[in-house]
Amino acid sequence: MPVYNTSERFLREAIQSVIDQVYPNWELCIADDASTRSSIQPILVEYQAKDSRIKVVFRTQNGHISASSNSALELATGEFIALLDHDDVLTPDALYEVVHLLNQHSEADMIYSDEDKLNEKDQLDSPFFKPDWCPDSFLSRMYTCHLGIYRRELVNQVGNFRIGYEGSQDYDLVLRITEKTDKIFHIPKVLYHWRIHSESAASGIEAKPYAYQAGLKALQDAINRRGENGVVQQVQGFPGHYRVRYKITEYKKVSIIIPTRDLGEILDRCLESIFTKSTYPNYEVILIDNGSVEDYTHKVIAKWKEKEYSRFKCCQLDIPFNYSKLNNYAVSQAKGDYLLFLNNDTEVITSDWIEAMVEQAQRPSIGAVGTLLLYPDDTIQHGGVVIGMRDVAAHSHQYFEANQPGYYGQIASTNNYLAVTAACLMCRREVFERVGGFDEQLAIAYNDVDFCLKLLQQGYRNLYLSHVILYHHESKSRGFEDTPEKLHCYMEEVTLMKQRWRKFIDHDPCYNPNLSLSQFGYSIKQFANVEIQEISSLKASCDEIFDFALEVPQPGILTRINTIQFIGWAIAKDSSIIAMQVIDSMGKVLKTFPCNWFRPDILKRYPDRKLAENCGFCTTIEINQIRGKDQLILQAVLQNGQYILLERVQIKFINPD
């Protein structure tokens, strides 16, 4: 712990937070950086005398935080070091949680936790719930930060803290450490309180403006060390956020692949934006026409064949809509080394959009590259995909204003996501072919998510680029799953995705388990005490239902929960149930989920009902979704198009005792 002219209260609280650790096997190594305040030395001497685990060195000359931290490091004898600023506070279980992880993962070289702020009223706020290790996100900003724990041998090996990087000395250190190891672990718990006061970096950019220049310098050094030809830029308007622009080694052909059917005006706008705004010198557009019948659409296609005869090609594939099959076929007709999948209802905004995507797609470690997509009102349609959100996957920060940074800079910076939307997605042809392209079983939904997860499985990382922007009029080409037929197909694809990718649906390492999976904006999961007051059957609506049961929830009080489970089974009389839904009293759908779980107990009860074996359902509704509501209604969606109300669950939020 480097110390310099700390306020007495803050210094005592920092030291005391170490003494109060429930894990006892620690040493506190303090280096006073020639403080001029007369109170500092007596405090440090006092604590050193009280506890033999506290070691102190008094520097005779002020050297700033890097030199002071190195002096503290010289005192250390532990296998691991943890960094603590002289005015911050550890939670009592911080070191316990670290050692608990080390007992499970002795190979760990670096560990970091979540953190929050301790304001001037001694209140905790602004928690930062971080993703697991995301190498490209880290090239955008120092997000691991507090609490950081590092294997001491590795810190020594990379040269400790470097003079000249003060303010971002920890960023510089971690950039060098992560070039030597990938054994990096994240504890998704707040273990560190970063104090906000006028001289702290936590208070804002004015406190330590030099830190951001030091961060840029550290990152440029890292890019140079790694032999990557790139230039680091500050993200304008967001200090402490950086963007690496890589030099394109070879301007290979990019094949822009656009599936379409009718909607000629939308298609024309898309093509116009590509051909008039794009500055990349070597691309082709492959239009895959899925049976257009409108005269105007044919005229648009003919116009662009004539205007861009060397760069525009239209292929016909008149089959029932299957997004995966259309794109796979188009790839077979494409000549490019890079494949850029694009919806026909997009419009290019950023003129060097292709260059920016190629910069990243050319990197051997990168699989899919996605972009920032906006609705016409300049709110966000896509800023990366979170797996597990809204049951299978959903877009990050959807409906947020595009000029906002997002959750700790998530919108404004380049980030790793497990998936990005294929409404605008680039990859190298070689990686596309390596994973077998898009899965044609997924005709409508989640084919892009599945593709990205297959890339991940092969060791590639997927990226979202904040500086590549297009407009997107989402699903205008197809509409939504608003008919029983579409919903039936959708639920089949949901089931397939859950079977195939349960690991990532349960935990997206680019997200954080403390954040909501029902809301798009990185909201914190809410906990509450809820009383299930009454469950009443809506019998008057059940003529189409042979039998059903809602087994969970049951009346009673549920304490400190963040979800309410719905478990049960249902069998229709003459139709089949294609989905179940939980709606609120106003009819708003909160969750749509399959009714196909294996229930041998129900088959035993009704052996003559062919659908009885797979008639179960199970889902959860987050507390975030139902705050302020007093009832939830379970309904079945039948293949014949009927929506059947089954049960009403009366709920009440109650205050803790």
Question: How would you characterize this protein structure?
Answer:
By secondary structure, the chain is an alpha+beta fold. It folds into three domains: 2-244, Spore Coat Polysaccharide Biosynthesis Protein SpsA, Chain A (Alpha-Beta Complex), CATH 3.90.550.10; 254-506, Spore Coat Polysaccharide Biosynthesis Protein SpsA, Chain A, CATH 3.90.550.10; 528-654, Immunoglobulin-like. The strands form seven sheets. Strands 12, 13, 14, 15, 16, 17, 18, 21, 22 and 23 form a ten-stranded mixed beta sheet that branches. Strands 4, 5, 6, 7, 8 and 9 form a six-stranded mixed beta sheet that branches. Strands 26-24-33-32-28-29 form a six-stranded antiparallel beta sheet. Helix 7 runs parallel beside helix 8 (210-225) and helix 9 (264-277) packs parallel to helix 10 (295-307). The mean pLDDT is 94.
CATH superfamily of the largest domain: Spore Coat Polysaccharide Biosynthesis Protein SpsA, Chain A
Give the low-confidence spans: none
Number of domains: 3
Output the CATH topology of the largest domain: Spore Coat Polysaccharide Biosynthesis Protein SpsA, Chain A
Ends distance: 41 Å
Annotated CATH architecture of the largest domain: Alpha-Beta Complex
| Name of the level-1 CATH class of the largest domain | Alpha Beta
Q: Helices and strands: which structural class?
A: alpha+beta
Overall pLDDT score: 94
What is the number of helical segments per DSSP (H or I, 4+ residues)? 18
Percentage beta strand: 25-35%
The portion of residues assigned to helices is: 25-40%
Principal-axes shape call: globular
Regarding quaternary structure, what we see is: single chain
What's the β-strand tally?
33
Major β-sheet annotation: 10 strands, mixed
Rg on CA atoms, Å: 28 Å
